[in-house]
C-alpha cells in the first residue's frame, strides 16, 4: 500500500476511534486513553520537521473541533511533534542523521521503543492536562492525571504498536 494512503487511513481511523470509542471510556471516573497520538509515534522520520509539525497541528485541531476541547489537544500535539526527533535521539542515543526511517520497527530494541513511547505519551499528557486545568495550584491533580492516564494509554497503545511494527529493509 502506498505510504501516503496508509498514513491518511491511519490518521482518520485513529481520530474516529478516539472520538467515538475511547472518549467514552472513563476508568475510575477520570482515566481516558489517548491513542490518537500513535500517529505521531509511528510516523516516519525521513520527512522534514515542518511536515510533522503540520500533521501534528491537523491531528490536534481535528480532535479539538470534534470534541470541543478548546485547543488543548492542538497545543499538546504541536509540542510533541516538535520534540519528537529529540525524544528519538534521547531514546536511541543516536545522532539526528542516524535515525532510522521508522523507529517502530522490529530492529529497534525494546527498551528504546519503551523509552520513546513513554516520553511522547508523558509529555503529551502533561501538556494536555496542564492546559485543561490551567491552574498551577492544581499541580498534584495534573501530575496524578498525567501519570495514571499515561500508564493506561501505554497499556492500550503497546499492542497496537506491536501490530504496526515493520521490518526495515
Helix tally equals 6
* Helix percentage: 55-70%
Mean pLDDT value: 86
Low-confidence stretches: none
Structure classification: mainly alpha
Tell me the major beta sheet: none
Strand content: under 5%
The run of helices and strands is HHHHHH
Query: How many distinct folded domains?
Result: 1
- Report the radius of gyration as a whole number of Å: 15 Å
Short description:
This protein has 169 residues and is mainly α.
Keywords:
mainly alpha, single chain, 6 helices
Please provide a written account of the structure.
The chain has 169 residues and is mainly alpha-helical. The chain has one domain. Helix content is 67%, strand content 0%. It is built from 6 helices and no strands. Helix 1 packs parallel to helix 3 and helix 3 runs antiparallel to helix 4.
How do the helices and strands line up, and which of them pair or pack?
Layout: H1 3-20, H2 38-42, H3 49-67, H4 72-92, H5 110-133, H6 139-164
Helix pairs in contact: 1-3, 3-4, 4-5, 5-6
